[in-house]
Here is the input.
Amino acid sequence: MFSVGSLLASILQIFLFALLGRLIFDYVQMFSKTWRPRGPILYLVEAIYTVTDKPMKFVSRFVPPLRLGGISLDLSFIVLFFGTQLLMGLVRNF
Here is the structure.
């Protein structure tokens, strides 16, 4: 039988996979400027960005980018990734 904690942990695990998928697609777009998703991959990319965009924007309101000389590093992904893992550890105990 599933408990509430294991159900929430499973939902957070799916969200974590979506975050990793977003990271992969962001790197693909960064290194191959001409690549555009087509066909079934387009639906997958759209679903991943739909699920992860609002939480990333929410976190980026509170976490400023890290300035490294002429570039700035967005830390919202890292904070959201580790926050999700921390939350998964907490809800598994319920």
Notes: The first strand starts at residue 66 and ends at 68. DSSP finds three helices and two strands in the chain. The CA atoms of residues 17 and 48 lie 9 Å apart.
